[in-house]
Amino acid sequence: MEIKTHKMYLNLGPSHPTMHGTLRILLTLDGETITDAVPEIGYLHRCFEKESEGHTYTQVIPYTDRLNYVSPLMNNVGYALAVEKLLGIEAPRRAQYIRVIISELSRIMDHLVAIGTNVVDIGALTNFWYFFNVREMMYVWVEALTGARLTNTYTRIGGVARDLPEGFADGVRKCLKDLGSAVKDVTGLLVKNRIFLERTRDVGAIAGEDAVAYGFTGPCLRASGVAYDVRKAHPYCCYDEFDFDVPLGVAGDTFDRTIVRIEEMRQSTRIIEQALARLPDGPIINPEAQSALPPKAEVYNSIEGLIRHFEIIMFGIRPPAGEVYGYTEAANGELGFYILSDGSGKPYRIKVRPPCFAIYQAYPKLIKGHLLADAIAVLGSLNIVAGELDR
Fold it and tell me: How far does CA 199 lie from the centroid of its chain?
């Protein structure tokens, strides 16, 4: 007897909890098997690039917080480096080391969210508490440093806004020690768990060659066995002075993407410990940077200081006319800022190269042939953050 079946069309998101209100994908199902998928984005578009054209270079920094809002400090650093490249200046060594510390803390916190929420989506709640407990401890020190928990606006063109607070180094070391325990606990709960292995092994796999063709960078690319890391290939902020490894996967599946992020947290711990141990003394902002505000004593007691402060706040820095592309290794991969200057105090054009955009375009390919439930596991392993995807 011939069984006649009909295709079913299903909207997955934006109201589905794992789509976070920002993604929609139209699925074609044969039973529970996905035969086709069409993604739709744009639910969180905030016109970052267009808004940047109407503000000074310094005023753009708070907008970068809203890209990958899970690790906003890395956005701050990437943007500041791009503008500094345009200006032809460098931040002082102490500021560069601080940028490394906050970037690697942000990478850890981003991976804690990515793994913790993904395993919750596929039914493993305990791991979430282990990871988010450590993340909350780290946020205490991020807030002590920047004055904010989420949208930090911490970097400045030519350096950082303020120096490390008292007790920061010891507090961060304590967080890293707790992180090691949490990673050990979560790894023990996952790597031999039959349910987790069956939900992640050979699910959403992509070969290294295909990952490169799609424009993958970051953990998703390295999970496919491609050893590309901007920190190694094109060092910035003194990354060439630190000893760390680049974790790689083999199969490029959901399991490998999870394990690579776990190992990256261990490598970030190594980098932070080295940076804290060798943190140089000195200024935290380049005095030649046009964004460096004069000391308050000069502002309050001299007309020159007052005028200088007024000019910086009102008109911003004025880089020479030209174009530049600055890029860093953010938590999800290569985060790039293309800036076109016309010599005025505001960028003529800014274009962001968000790692999530290239990665998400492969999502339909990754889930075709898998079950509906697998689509959830795969999406979480890609760690799509709509703030940088839509911009």
Answer: 26
**Residue 38: enclosing H or E segment and its boundaries?**
strand 33-40
Q: Which residues of the chain have pLDDT under 70?
A: 1-4, 289-291
Dihedral (CA of 359, 360, 362, 367) sign: positive
Distance set, CA 89 to CA 92, 156, 369 (Å): 10, 12, 51
Write b or e for each residue in 345-383: b if 16 or more Cβ atoms lie within 10 A of its Cβ, otherwise e.
bbbeebebbbbbbbbbebbbebbbebebebbbbbbbbbb
Tell me which fold the domain 68-317 belongs to.
Answer: Cytochrome-c3 Hydrogenase; chain B (1.10.645)
Name every residue whose Cβ is closer than 8 Å to that of residue 124 and which is 6 or more positions away in sequence. 189, 190, 193, 195, 196
| Residue 387, phi then psi, degrees to nearest 5 | -60, -40
The domain locations on the chain are 68-317
Torsion of the alpha carbons at 198, 178, 73 and 257, rounded to the nearest 10: -20
Backbone angles phi, psi at 341, to 5 degrees: -110, 140
d(Cα 171, Cα 168) in Å, to the nearest integer?
A: 5
11-70 confidence digits (pLDDT tens):
998 888 888 888 999 999 998 999 999 999 888 888 899 999 999 999 999 999 999 999
What distance in Å separates the CA atoms of residue 388 and residue 224, rounded to the nearest whole number? 22
